Every structure is written in structure tokens, then in C-alpha cells.
Amino acid sequence: MKRSSRIRASHVNAGTSSQRVDLPLRGRRGGELLHPKLHVDVEDTDTTPYGGLSLAAQLVSQLGLPAEIDASLDLLRAHRPYSEADHVLTHVYNLFVGGTCIEDIAHLQGSEPIRRLLGARSLPDPTTAGDFLRRFGEEDLVALDEAIDTAQGRAWKLANGKRKRAVALVDMDSHVHPVYGHQMEGTDFTYKGSFGYHPLAITLAETQECLRLVNRPGNTPSAEGAAELLEEVFPLLEGGFKRIVVRGDSAFARHDIYDACDANGHDFAIVLPAHQNLVAIAESLQGKAWKPFRGSEKPAPKQSKAKRRKRGCNVRRRQAKKRGKRDLKLKRQWLAEVEYKPSRAKQSYRVIIRRQRIEESNQGELFTLWRYRFVISNMPPRHSAEAVVRLTYQRCDQENVIEQLQNGIAAMAMPTGNFLANGAYLVCARLACNIKSWLAQIALPKEAVRWEWKRFRQAFVIVAARVVHHARSVIVRVARSHRFADDICRGIARLQT
Known about the structure:
Layout: H1 3-6, E1 47-48, H2 53-62, H3 65-72, H4 84-97, H5 105-109, H6 112-118, H7 126-133, H8 138-160, E2 165-174, E3 177-178, E4 188-189, E5 195-197, E6 200-204, E7 210-214, H9 226-238, E8 241-248, H10 255-264, E9 267-272, H11 276-284, E10 291-292, H12 315-323, E11 326-340, E12 349-362, E13 365-377, H13 385-393, H14 398-407, H15 419-442, H16 453-460, E14 465-470, E15 473-478, H17 485-496
Parallel strand pairs: 2-8, 8-9
Antiparallel strand pairs: 1-14, 2-6, 3-5, 4-5, 6-7, 9-13, 10-11, 11-12, 12-13, 14-15
């Protein structure tokens, strides 16, 4: 046997392989997958595949969310037997474990171990849960958001104590969500030509927490209502952060957003559309006004010749040349800064201009193009133009956050035909999204904050566990074979201290 075949493969993640001494020896040659004949039977058991739901349930209890929701909402004349918090948290837990529609609540409803884990005799039926969403009015949506804000402040105190974090990077963006029904209330044609809704998301960049998730008709402009929502979330952020920076793309370059940030003493850095007057200003600047700018913050470390690998062929550029397609290549960049007063704004702001020299290859001929990008900001001069530009364009990561809201927890499912009911579903999805972030900050490994939902669920939610009653207590016995069993037990212990 060759020496290389006896070396155990390395793995990026700990716990994904077994030592050679742990593997049974086989006296035959062939593959490892034997696919033996299986005998399947049914038995009564107290096992659930969602043992990690105990983490979410313990955190919800620790934050006092049920009492906060019940105090904020008054939608039911009588609690027979479910309260407002029972309905809201049923939707939240359904999204947390991977449900993609209201009907998936039936999987939790029919599981005795899940009911035992949540301390419930029964859970709402999917039809009852859908009827509850249709009871929401606009004031109720605001009240539920405020209840979640209160829990969010408590979660930050559990994670950081009385110490405030340095900077809150608040990102704003909208999402066009097409629907395929013709009778859904509030739908309209979007700026992309599709028919559906146009939700607005305001998130925290560092932890991917959702500060607001609001449903809007499809024809609503991207930034409409953003300034009012910022006014709502500023008090919450001021309690947990020393400094707040608001970021957005060119659709959010509006005077009401500038005014909201100025009135509350917070910074903003927003992309400006390349209007003709701004391009004229950029073209009128002299050569000394421009300073070289590197796209990457730090140059790549130089490697020794022994370790240097040959760069692979640029297949896209090769195919573009072969097909006679237009090919653009960024060569150099420069920055300049001017003072500019937008229309209807109350004051002037810094505008940082990024000039890009682009080489265009088209059918074998080489051309040079000049492109301009603009950023408007009220950040003080101690923040250099380079720092402001980099900070502004780092907000592009919010596209991944919105993608996870859509595909990770099915927040954009829009499960009913009622506009406000779908808005209530979005608020429940906001809470489910935040529970993941809060768990990572308080009880689980810190790197889990940036994990996608699929990886997070496989690590900390989809866990085989027995849920048993013993001595007036509910005990969750997690399968020891699970990779993160010890982390889950330590997480529960942190939440209970």
C-alpha cells in the first residue's frame, strides 16, 4: 500500500471524520457502503428530530417574550385555550425548525415530544394559525414590532452586559417578491414588471439581525417609509451601541433619510445615483484632486516561489474573446471629494467620487471607458474618503441576508391572501431570524452568527433527542452521536444561568 493512501484526510470542520482505530476492520475488498436489507417497524417513542428547538424555547422564556407579546396584543376575545403569544410563537417555531408554509405547523402539532418540550397540551391547528394572522391591523403590527424590540434590547444585555458595542451598521434594502395568485390583497406591478409585493428590510450588518421587515404593495418605491422606520429603531440602537451608521443603495438617497439621521445625531453613507450634474462636477475636477484608490483594503501577501501557484485561465474572458462579446476590465481607480447640497436637503454633505478607468475589448479592438460612482455622507472629516467608500460598499452583504430571509426561513412565503396578515407573517419571520442571531451571541459558538440557515439547522436544530418527564421536570436527552451535542448542552446551561 502506498504511503499516501494510509494518511487520514484532513477536514476543515472538527468532528467530521473518524480515527482509523474507531473504524471496524473488514476482511474484504470493496466499498464502505453495504446497503444491507432493512426491517422497518413502528413503535411509540418520545423522540423528536428537533431537539435543538429546546435552545429557542429556553431563550424565549429567558427574554420574557410570551408575557411581552400578550401585553402588546389584544386580538382574541377569549383564550380558548391559546393566547396571542401562543399563536405568534407557533409561527416562529415553525419557521425556526424549517417550516415553509402554515401547513407545516401540523408536524409540530402532532408531535408529543415537541408539545412536551414546549410545555403545551396542544398547539394551534394550521387553519387556526392562519385565521389568527388575519386578525392583525396596522396598530397590531407596530405593537408586535415593539414587543420584539424590547426582547432585542434584553438579548443585547445578556450578550454584552452593560457595555455598549462600538458601531451599529444599519443596512436598508427592498426585495421584489412576485406572487402567482391574482386575488392577493395589496399586490401590484413592481418596477421590474412582475406582479407581487415589495417588502422593506432594515438589518444589522454585524449580526444579521432584522430590525424591521415590512410588507408593502408592489408599486411602492424602494425607500418609501424608510425614514419613519429609522426613527422607530434609533432608540433601540442607542441603548446598545455608541455610534450608528446608516447605509443604503442609490434608491435610498433621499432627503428625508438624511434629515432623520441628522436630527438624531447619527451618520449615514449612501450611494448616490450618477445624475448628469454630478457627472459634470466629476469631469470638471482637475488632476490634482484625484487620489489613487485600491479596491482591496490590503494588498495580497506575497508568496515565496516555492509556494506560488500558477493562476488559472480566465475562462470568461477567453470565451468573450472567442465569441466576440463585449469584455470590461477594471484597470485603475481614483477618489475625489466635493461638497454638495442635494435638492430639498437642509444642508450640504460630503460627496466622494470614485473614478474608474475601464478597458473594453470588443471584437478585437481595445477602448478606454471612464465610469463614475458617488457616495454621499455626513461622516466627519476624520473618516477618510477611502474608509467611507469601503464602508458604504460593504453593505452589499445585505443581499445575502435577504436571500436567507427568503430561502432560509421562508419569510417571503406570503401564505395568505390578506395584505396585513402577510405583514404579520413577516414580523414573525423577523423574530425567528433574530432568535438564531441571539442564540449565537449568547449561548452558542460566536461564528454561528454568520452561518446560513441550512448549516445552523443541521448543527443546532435538527438534533435527535428524547423528551421525557422526570421528577416534575422536562428532560431533553440529546443524541451523543451528534457533532454539536456538547455545544447544545453548554448553550442550555448558559441560558439558564
